[in-house]
């Protein structure tokens, strides 16, 4: 007998249906073979399926069992096929009666005792199932919350193999789980509230602008000035994720296997802070079986690179293309995959190896050559892609010890959210959600400048030697500053403030 069960594979961030064909023949010696470009986990599936069937009270018939995973030319990985293989055996051996299950998708890893365990990549599979008009999806119960973000498809949570046997033997039907509405929130933290940051008013203002428009920031200043503190606090003022953004981000985390039962959906903007020793693959993505890197895990959120000049040059250079395009393409022998990587870069750097170059209170002990070399570690093209450059001076001790608390993150987040709401409205129907993402055409459409602003920009181009890219970035920042003020028009004071954040001006 031949049985066909539909399952799914994850390719990049998308999913494709996989047909699991199980054939049981009486002729020949008893055997159990799986074909169809499976990896080691799929090869080992045989052992799990064998034990799981036995421990659930079913049989693995002593016959010639052949399993084919089609399409055969697509490499497949992971243990998600255990469940469809076991189910296929139950049908092909006629332990279950034949019935039409072509409108259902089955995914799950089996333990030896027959229980169904959590797997990664459920969300893309659920999205594919809905898009391809499947009616039902059977998933491990620990993946339930991840699967039921998607509506218009019935999600059946599975505890063990016995349960699915009873379901198709119509002994006891499994109830599909109802859809669940998600709550989106922003990050709250006592430790990293803006009210704990003393002084640094201009840096805080710059971070507010960055959060509102999704811009990139470089903070430069001596050690102990509060750069790390401020970057970490940024998470508490970011705008809330929208539902669509949350789906995009959750898909990446699902494929990277970073979701858990307690945290099945990403509901706030991610902030990633990889160390400078993180490998190229860890940061950018890749590997034999391609995996999203930190830049993709920071999608729709913040990538914080502390001690920026310490990152290897080739890693920093690899950031250029994703910073421009909002995605990264990883090529492998088996084909290329594209991961989204639309993040705000927040970088922190000391001005020189000792950290005190340009400091008012302490003398720099580095020789001029060392300072130049240190600063050159960040190439011009990277600096050009950073919208906001701020210097973070040391805060005077008397200011640090003052009891007075500054504005709280809650208050700042409200302003940021209001500015982001204006952007969401502006870009409705377009693929973008923030000012930082505007292309040149959108820039023209949404950023009208008055004469005074144009004049100001013209002067700045010659004085600051602005590249075309930097010029566009200044206008985007001015757009965000105007949005924070609730001003439809970009005025010259907005442009003037935006220009302050370019390197080369005194800030
Ligand atoms: N402006 C500030 N307000 C409050 N605390 C600060 C400030 N600047 C620095 N600190 C404190 O000093 C320590 C060092 O700050 P950190 O952010 O690590 O500095 P940096 O990254 O610039 O070297 C932290 O414990 C931080 O809490
Ligand atoms: Mg630091």
Q: Could you explain the architecture of this structure?
A:
This protein is an alpha/beta fold. 37% of the residues lie in helices and 17% in strands. It has a 5-stranded parallel β-sheet with strand order 11-14-17-10-18. A 4-stranded mixed β-sheet has the order 1-2-4-3. Helix 17 packs across helix 20 and helix 20 (468-485) packs across helix 21 (492-500). The longest helix is centred in the last third of the chain and has 18 residues, at 409-426. The relative contact order is 0.10. The structure holds adenosine-5'-diphosphate and magnesium ion (MG). Adenosine-5'-diphosphate binds next to helix 8.
Structure in a nutshell:
By secondary structure, the protein is α/β, with parallel strands linked by helices. The chain is built from 21 helices and 18 strands.
Question: Could you list some keywords that capture this structure?
Answer:
binds adenosine-5'-diphosphate; 21 helices; alpha/beta; 5-stranded parallel beta sheet; 17% strand; binds magnesium ion; 507 residues
- By helix and strand content, what is the structural category? alpha/beta
Say which molecules are bound, naming each kind only once: adenosine-5'-diphosphate, magnesium ion
Shape: elongated
* Helix share, percent: 25-40%
Strand order of the largest sheet: 11-14-17-10-18
Mean pLDDT: 91
Weakly predicted, low-confidence segments: none
**How big a fraction of the residues is strand?**
15-25%
